[in-house]
Amino acid sequence: QVQLVESGGGLVQAGGSLRLSCVSSGSVSGIYFTGWYRQAPGKERELVASIANHVGTNYLDSVRGRFTISRDDAKNTVYLQMNSLKPEDTAVYYCHARDYLEGNYWGQGTQVTVSS
Question: Which residue of 17, 75, 77, 95 pairs with 107 in a disulfide if CB–CB is 3.0 to 4.6 A?
Fold first, then answer.
């Protein structure tokens, strides 16, 4: 089992920055994929950025060049640095991890609100 805890959300003005953190605990050695998803009211949950073993990073087109996903294995933490935030980035952001035992894990989510 893996537990994920997100932090770092908040209220920011357009053009500002936030850094989200996702700390994993439990059986973390089997995790091969970690992604940040977001869900805005009335919209589908979408994959914003991901980082995977032997694959690297991937980004949603609308955030590429503004968001950066990174991983600190010593701290069991995945970060999402979000720069040049726009009101349309407003959503609940969720951390998601997959492991080699076909486990799928979600965090509780953290709210990001970007004001215009």
Answer: 95
